[in-house]
Amino acid sequence: MAMLGGHPFLVRLALYRISCQDITLEQLLKTAPTMQMYQLQRMGLVQLDGNEVMPRCNLYREYFRARLKGECR
Questions:
Q1: CA 9 and chain centroid, separation
Q2: Which of 9, 13, 57, 64 is most buried when burial is the number of CB atoms within 10 A of its CB?
Q3: Residues 46, 53 contacting (CB under 8 angstroms)
Q4: 3 state SS of 72
């Protein structure tokens, strides 16, 4: 719940995939940050280049910079 922020769809999907034995809880927790990265890409907020994540435009760059100040080092 904490890793997924309590998001109902993501919690349901995670529990479903674990119950179908597609993935273990340990694997889910290890890959969860990359799930968030792909969601940001699908929403059109960021571009992915390998492991690099870049905001799609200056507006999003400024928004992320203001909101994530001090969280990213």
A1: 14
A2: 64
A3: yes
A4: coil
Q: Which helix (H) or strand (E) holds 66?
A: helix 58-67
The residue type of 19 is: S
Gap between the Cα atoms of 67 and 18, Å rounded? 33
Which amino acid, one-letter code, is at 11?
V
Task: Check residue 67 and report its DSSP letter.
Answer: H
Are the C-beta atoms of 15 and 6 separated by less than 8 Å? no
Query: Quick one: three-class SS letters along 2-65?
Result: CCCCCCHHHHHHHHHHHHCCCCCHHHHHHHHHHHHHHHHHHCCCEEEECCEEEECCHHHHHHHH
Residues in CB range of 3: below 8 A, 6 or more apart: 28, 29, 32
pLDDT tens by residue, 9-52: 888 888 998 999 988 988 888 877 778 788 888 889 999 887 78
